[in-house]
């Protein structure tokens, strides 16, 4: 009888790509991970699970939680319900300070930035109060795809969000309050994001996941054409000084590298071979002081282990000077999220 293949993303499956950590003492801030209780659509990822990853061989000192529309309040005003996620993560962050593992040091929450100004300010104040000193900004993703049936991670934004006047007003309020704006979207929306960043120069904007070059569905056969256009778009975005880049998150199933469909996870060498060109182009355009490596776990866990991801980043980073490496692994995140 043949053995059953371990489930993709499971500990047994991830163990098939075990690697010894490279440069294990290097201090790292992971500026992008999620937390959520178990649901019918995704398995639990809480503090013990996070620490299982962050303690897998690399020196992850601090982390930044980024919203995932989970653990909202069940009642009360609709606009205030996302504050429940901040409350949920703040409790976990307190526990992280007492347990000896990586410390959750900042929270990026959700609010609909199109809300009326007084309502928006009230929700932001509630996030601040709930965050226990950790609330740093908002992510309201702009990802939109007209026919998204082929995507595993479904987008939720309406068409044209970045051009919406009320939305732009909300993003501007973030800057007035010293808060940052995180977003993720698809490669074909990069020009729209550039227009948003030009229109709201007073707000620090964090571009997640390279602007998510898609590689599945109708985009599966267009990788090279998409890459060439993506390079041009990233170069334009990088001209805007209020934008910084999270470089990572390319191992999602929708990126189309297919590692989530394999018998074994990707190795660090495979990630470098397939994706280093994205990293080097972004670093060349933005400069290391405006780039930060991000794990995007547990989403990218469907492709490779946490320790393997950081090995790959260290292989990619080795061509850069020591201070540039420190910026991408630690300093940029420390500055942007005021850690």
TrEMBL record:
Keyword annotations from UniProtKB, A to Z: Hydrolase
The keyword Hydrolase is annotated on this UniProt entry: yes
Pfam families: Amidohydro_2
Residue span, Amidohydrolase-related domain: 29-339
GO molecular function list: hydrolase activity
Keyword Hydrolase part of the UniProt annotation: yes
Coiled-coil intervals, chain numbering: none
Top-rank taxon, per record: Bacteria
PANTHER family with a match to the protein in the record: AMIDOHYDROLASE (PTHR43569), BLL3371 PROTEIN (PTHR43569:SF1)
UniProt record similarity statement: Belongs to the metallo-dependent hydrolases superfamily.
Protein name: Amidohydrolase
Protein's organism: Bradyrhizobium macuxiense
């Amino acid at each position: 009888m043949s053995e059953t293949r371990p489930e993709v993303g499971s500990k047994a499956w991830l163990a098939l790509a075990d690697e010894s950590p490279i440069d294990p003492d290097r201090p790292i801030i992971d500026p992008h991970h999620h937390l959520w209780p178990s649901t019918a659509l995704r398995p639990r990822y809480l503090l013990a699970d996070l620490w299982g990853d962050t303690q897998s061989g690399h020196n992850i000192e601090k982390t930044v939680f980024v919203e995932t529309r989970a653990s909202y309040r069940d009642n009360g005003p609709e606009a205030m319900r996302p504050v429940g996620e901040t409350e949920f993560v703040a409790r976990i962050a307190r526990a992280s300070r007492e347990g000896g593992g990586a410390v959750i040091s900042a929270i990026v929450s959700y609010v609909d930035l199109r809300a009326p100004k007084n309502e928006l300010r009230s929700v932001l104040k509630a996030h601040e109060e709930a965050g226990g000193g950790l609330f740093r900004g908002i992510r309201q993703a702009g990802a939109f795809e007209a026919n998204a049936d082929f995507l595993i991670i479904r987008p939720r934004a309406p068409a044209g969000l970045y051009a919406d006047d009320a939305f732009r007003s909300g993003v501007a309020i973030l800057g007035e309050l010293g808060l940052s704006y995180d977003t993720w979207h698809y490669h074909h929306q990069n020009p729209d994001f550039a227009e948003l960043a030009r229109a709201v120069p007073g707000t620090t904007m964090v571009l997640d996941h390279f602007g998510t070059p898609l590689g599945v569905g109708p985009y599966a056969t267009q990788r090279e054409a998409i890459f060439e256009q993506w390079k041009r778009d990233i170069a334009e975005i990088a001209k805007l000084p209020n934008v910084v880049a999270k470089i990572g998150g390319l191992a999602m199933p929708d990126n189309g590298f297919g590692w989530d469909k394999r018998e074994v996870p990707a190795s660090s060498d495979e990630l470098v071979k397939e994706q280093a060109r994205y990293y080097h182009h972004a670093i060349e355009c933005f400069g290391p002081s405006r780039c930060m490596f991000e794990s995007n776990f547990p989403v990218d866990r469907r492709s490779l282990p946490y320790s393997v991801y950081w090995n790959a980043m260290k292989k990619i980073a080795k061509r850069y000077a020591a201070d540039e490496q420190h910026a991408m692994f630690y300093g940029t995140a420390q500055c942007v999220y005021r850690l």
